[in-house]
Amino acid sequence: MDKKPFIHPYIPNSVPEVKKKMLEEIGVKDIEELYEDIPPELRLKRDLNLPEPLLSELELRRHVEAVLDQNISCGERPSFLGGGCARHYVPAICDEIAHRSEFLTAYAGEPYEDAGRFQALFEYESLMAELLDFDVVNVPTYDWGQAASTAARMAGRITGRGKLLVSDTMSPDRLAVVRNYCHPVMSLEPVGHHKDTGLLDLGDLKAKLTKDTAAVYFENPSYLGFIETQGEAISSAAHANGSLVIAGVDPISLGVLKPPGRYGADLACGDIQGLGNHMFYGGSLGGFIATRDEEKFVMEYPSRLFGIARTSVEGEWGFGDVAYSRTSFDKREKGKEFIGTAAALYGIAAAVYLSLMGPQGMRELGIHILQKARYAAMKLAKVPGIHLRFHSTPFKEFVVDFNHSGKSVGEVNEHLFEEGIFGGKDLSKEFPELAGCALYAVTEMTTQADIDRLAAVLKSYLG
Amino acid sequence: MDIKQDSKLRNFHQAKWDEEVIFELTNPGERGILVPGVGPGVEKAAGDGISSVPESMRREKPPVLPEISQMRVLKHFLRLSQQNLGADLNVDVGQGTCTMKYNPKINEVFASSGKAVDLHPDQDERTVQGALRIMYELDLFLREISGLDRFTLQPSSGSHAILAMASIVRKFHETRGEGDKRDEIITTIFSHPSDAAAAAVKGYKVVTIYYDRTGLPDIESLKKAVSGRTAALFITNPEDTGIFNPRIAEFTRTVHEAGGLCGYDQANANGILGVTRAKEAGFDMCFFNLHKTFGTPHGCGGPASGALGVSKALVDFLPVPIVEYDGKSYSLNWDLPHTIGKVRAFYGAFPAILKAYAWIMSLGAAGLKEVAHIAVLNNNYLLKKITEIPGATAPFAAGKRRIEQVRYSWEELTKETGVDTHQFSLRMADFGFHLWSSHHPFLVPQPFTIEPTESYSKEELDEYVDGLRHVAEEARLEPETVKSAPHRSVVHKIDESTFDDPAKWAITWRAYRKKHGNPAAEGGTK
């Protein structure tokens, strides 16, 4: 390769004649001269030590596909994994639009030549707003954890207070994100739950609300799957204390479950992965933050907020940034938190998804998941040695207690693995009190046959 | 103004469908997609589902989503896509600092594989050996490219990586009992706004170094700024001006002597791959934007990845988990004694990780260096061509070479014609080009920033230059044409007056209807 010119298909101007012409135009003999400002002691004086390249597309394809073939996916085996990422059905049109070159390879053009992405993301905000029953939704941030973090910081700035109370059933992974993001500006304090239902302990909440409490954060449905029925009571207690309420919600539940503003939440956040986006090893997440259309809330967003407007041509729609002066793009460290690239394409896929589903689709899907989860919970509860940990209504996830089966979750999951099933997530490490328990998730992708087989395998293993 | 005969400029016209807002397409009763039933077995055992939900938690009114048949939904979003100018379609050199290079289609094939899209992050590690291997090997590649010792792939953009750096800085000083004492992070005005903003999120006071007369950050200002309060320096190099800071090692030495850490913002790394590295420049941390330098698509603003590398002394502070390999199998290590915790759920934006891995595997060491060389060649070629256009200048460091981008100025043209850089960029849209100005504040008057990368042929670069030249001439001959642009793009002059007015702004369709009434009543879209 050192001998002959290196012309990679991705690099047109490597052709020697072209290179020569361009160098002549610049007035230098060698590309090296263009690096004259980099001092010799900073120059790497050897070649990078990287694997030999797979120059032809065919060789590259063989290699990468062989590596990917080492994976076994949830498309090949029934899976009962959830906990912040779940396998929902992705309509073909969501993939079609998300793969369009015009969207996939665009970035940061003006609302003129990039009118399409501005409109698609405005529509994303608008469709989410209907689902969430709020008037303001941001262009997506990284994920639910970031959305919850920013909602907390917004609440901190709005109230001028420094503490966030969090339900202690929240996702530990997400809690770690929020904890890091808030430190050292805000502190976090957990609020306990009832051991038999998982529901938030209102007494503990009231005891912990102080004049420094900026907001109370809880999840609904919770990370542990149950529907939190005390939203109104939580909100009343928080509001009486001058604190705000942040609800983390699964948007796919909102065709059937009450939207968070209706039980008093001031801010809602969550993830759009389930809305037309594949799981991608937990890599295709996108966070939303929703609130009321009040200046004091809107002006605290760090996110892009795309608004709709008219143009100089009658009847024509245009789009653009609302209150851009809030952002760090405009004001650097004086802006609200920071803004940059995040998860816009997943927002566009979610817009397509919600447009396809419509109100009926979201309701039917919500009911479908409720029925399937209930069926799965009932079916597993009949297996000797298995109990359901909480006596409360699950949406798509529920906690299965193996403590009376004589087997650990690890042993159960190993057996299921051998039987070609991905068992539920072991909660032992995340929640010491839930040692011996696992979080099972069911979606529309889970068939009755999958559930029946899971129950049968567990019955013969534990029975 | 007519396009000159010898010009490579295209007589472009963007698609304009005059497309409705999606809510205007609703026809009650239409369905876009159907949901399968649960089957009689489940129905019989589990009931109707909804009765199990306590009444107080049931949704009373259905969400007011539009009801649209499938083909119409498809058509709507296809039309919106045509009203958007992706890099695959244009000579995308005008979004300087964004590194709009070719995103190979084969990598999209990989990213569509069921072996990638259908992986759950909590699967048994034995079933995700391929995914873990890709993450581990990408870490190895980036270690070699930077000279640092370990990468996390969790941060999901450059800004996010800066947040992770600031978190590591804080934790590092806290473990040494200096968490509160070291409360300042130093950055430079030509570094990305997030170098300042994400540091402030972590409670830091931001100290900003300005440039000297050569356009480089002023070392004397840095020497005055460092003290026992210095927690870290976050700096880009080359900065957005494209000038490589030759004294960068002196910067890191100065900060280290004061007890601070150094974080290298390598968002602009495309011109220095295999040429110069973070390690030799003395940095403790650096990050790469996989969606820029490493060929993964920008997706209208994400998904993205800001892979963050650290030196040995800081590995224990990384977010968890990181991927380990024992010679036989790959696993996730959650046990780092000083970890900052997490900056995002699970492990990172896997689609970007996978595509960057494939991109590096396709190019290898020689290819990466060629990427850098040609990006720099293209940039200096454009520097020559653009500064030949009357009215265009490249402020600072006259005669200096630039690395992979240049921040230019239309100041002279604006003085002469009254056409400003924003108007200029909107006229460029009429020819199918993006032209971006600069981050704020505008330190270069009437700025525009060009970064050609390695992806565009000489002919395409010439076409872009012809576009700039055409519009500059037009600004002199018929300035109104430029000032009233765009004419052949998607929409006309947007009435921006509502965007900063809380009584009028509308961030959602329902807010628009509340504030401005039902558009159907005013005659609809058309």
Describe this structure in words.
- The complex is a heterodimer of chains A (463) and B (526).
- By secondary structure, chain A is an alpha/beta fold.
- Chain A folds into 3 domains: 57 residues, no CATH class; 263 residues, Aspartate Aminotransferase, domain 2 (3-Layer(aba) Sandwich); 103 residues, Aspartate Aminotransferase, domain 1 (Alpha-Beta Complex).
- In chain A, the strands form 3 sheets. A 7-stranded mixed β-sheet of chain A has the order 1-7-6-5-4-2-3, sandwiched between helices.
- In chain A, a hairpin with an 8-residue loop joins strand 10 and strand 11.
- The longest helix of chain A is centred in the C-terminal third of the chain and has 38 residues.
- The radius of gyration of chain A is 26 Å and the shape is globular.
- Chain A starts with 15 loop residues before the first helix and ends with a helix.
- Among the domains of chain B are: 52 residues, no CATH class; 213 residues, Aspartate Aminotransferase, domain 2 (3-Layer(aba) Sandwich); 28 residues, no CATH class.
- Chain B is built from 15 helices and 11 strands.
